[in-house]
Amino acid sequence: MTDVVSLASCFTFGDISQASARIDGSDNTPVLKLIKESHAKGYDFLCLPLTTPKWRERWRNMCIVPSESANDTDENATAEQQAEAWRKAPSFLHEEVTISRLDEAVPVLVMASDWLQLDSTDDWVRHDSEIALRQEVAYASYLNIQTVILPPPRHRSQVASYARAINECLKSTAYMNFSIRLPIYDPVVFQPKESPPIPPSTMSTSSTPSAPSTPKIVTPRVSTSKAARAPEGEINATWEMWDIIRTLCDYNTRLTLTLDLTLPLPSNAGILNRWMAEPVHHIFLPASTFIANVKGYPVLPKGTQSFLRNSMAHHPIIIMSGVSSGLHTKGGESAYAQYVRHVEKTSSAVQAAMTAGTVEHFAQGYQDYLQNPLQPLMDNLQSITYQTFEQDPVKYRNYEEAVYRALMDWPDSDHIVICVAGAGRGPLVERSLTAIKRSRRSAFVYAVEKNPNAFVTLQGRKQNEWGDSVQLFFGDMRHVELPEQVDILITELLGSFGDNELSPECLDGAMRFLKPDGISIPSSYSAHLAPLSSSKLYNNARISREIKGMETPYVVMFQNINILSGDGGGVSGRCGRRIQQCWEFEHPRKDATVDERGLPLTNSHNVRSTKLLFHIPHAGVMHGLAGYFEAVLYGHVGLSIHPNSKDRVSKDMLSWFPLFFPFKEPLYLPSNSELHVSIWRLTNERQVWYEWYAESFLPVFNTPPSPEHSEDTSGDGSYASSSTHVAVPSPVIDASVLNCARVEKNH
Prior knowledge:
Elements: E1 6-10, H1 13-20, H2 30-40, E2 45-49, H3 53-63, H4 65-68, H5 74-88, H6 102-105, E3 108-111, H7 123-142, E4 147-150, H8 159-172, E5 177-183, H9 232-248, E6 255-260, H10 269-273, E7 280-286, E8 291-292, E9 298-299, H11 302-311, E10 317-321, H12 334-345, H13 348-354, H14 359-362, H15 383-390, H16 393-409, E11 416-421, H17 427-439, E12 443-449, H18 452-466, E13 470-474, E14 486-490, H19 503-510, E15 514-521, E16 524-533, H20 535-541, E17 554-555, E18 562-563, E19 580-586, E20 608-616, E21 620-634, E22 637-640, H21 646-650, E23 659-669, E24 673-683, E25 687-701, E26 717-720, E27 736-746
Parallel strand pairs: 1-2, 1-10, 2-3, 3-4, 4-5, 5-6, 6-7, 7-10, 11-12, 11-14, 12-13, 14-15
Antiparallel strand pairs: 8-9, 16-18, 16-19, 16-21, 17-23, 20-24, 21-22, 21-23, 24-25, 25-26, 25-27
Helix pairs in contact: 1-2, 3-5, 7-8, 8-9, 16-17
């Protein structure tokens, strides 16, 4: 199996110093020596600090020591003059950097100085830290380094200052990627007080520092007597800081995450899953995260193992740190990389991508890629498009089974008539003939197709394969006439949302072919929605920077996403399931008023609307809605891309990816909030379109509701938004609203 993730070996300045003693004739620098040794051990990249302790010492002596001294001495005045000169023209001395050559920088991820405090509570420390970071970024850019891993934010109160500094770095470089190293949660839970900006004890100038440790994050502390289990607000702290940073940086695609897995992971899958929707390009995995198995070899705790296995689908670079320290008694340094490769090979996502016939294998290269839905009613599809969909054995197998069962259930008859409306290049005609043969019933097939180019292919297949068992009709199914009514009508007009390719409108025109007691395949289909988080999809949808791009649903093979909703919940459990049904269409339908030809007078009967209530158990940012469909072909035979039923109904079906309804602006959803989503399917004489809208609510407990809203309250709490009248404004009310979006289709 080909490796899908890359491994990087993380080194400290002490490792670089030790490598200088091992330089032989073929190596010119310690870094080149480490590169050579790492490649020999199977690593793809190196992760190195960009600067040495001498840079930290000089910066501290210029920017920190003078402010710590109470005496206004000549020495301090000199240091201040040096600091001002440095602020005017920041630059390094040769001994202050670890890399100075292009050939050293090629396979390297560099770490900016982790002692920089871009979010310090001290204004001058914050100011000088930003200058120092810009200096490091400029030097990395000079060496053509592609990725800089940034020190994490530490103070929640100043995270906006941190974000502003990072945004300035993004603006100053056109190609460089920045990755913020963050733990999944605060390692010290909450601290009662903020520590000094840069304490003297942390300014050690040791030449052999240890590997960078997990950062401590200082946030306002909430008093609690139960230390065994942290409140969710504490678990959310790092993600919320990341959300602020990427929002202030306008979702810049060059800003990514390096997730630090040093700490034991929380057991709550909902909290972990939100990181799957973020641009996690690197995972920091130190030797201390591993535990020893019964034989003494290093293995990962089950929670970390599971999270890493799920992350493999996104192809991160795994940064291994401290693996040569001898922390575990068996296996040596190679045991850690071997174990990570084992986790990779046992990842279900990786296995599926490597297995022919699976959706994951078929969709390689299309994950999170936005595609406009097909419009076969308006456009004539190309032969290559037909060929792509004809590669789906599951869909046509299920269609054949549905036709077979319909034939077996049909009353005894010497003449059963089948019509395939929208025959394309003929796959459903072929499957219908196979079903007829299996059933040993006497049946005849009409095939209707409006695409003049595909009709040429149908003529060739009739001449060479089908003969007199099939009669072809050229024209739009809404206008063509057949010599008789049929017993079974077969179509494949479904879209990713069921009705989004205008199946209801097309079948309105074809239902006149069907006898009053005839069978339609499919007999029904339903549309389903769920709130979705994905910074990648949001960025892709707004690439054009035009409103239309954010008002168009896209077909997407989801990968880098997180479904935000949970099952049930809300006040008195009034919220629905994680993924909820919007509406359903059934065929043949009886509610349309038709003319003498059997065609509807208007399209009003195909208008739909719904309002869905979702429980949001964990804080997140909603970037849009995920759309799915389920269809009943006949009896118990169906098609589905619904996550809960697709493996049972039509596993590994390739023909449809889900639909993504983007929002113009991300919508923050607090923990334990309630999300109200409204969606409409609207129509006029020429067009069909969707509009969608969402707003979030937080519970307001012990707040007397006004009489006009009393029907919405029960139990010990209610939900409030800016449009809800309450007696006293509450600081816990979080009401957010998104404008509706609209997409149109012509018919």
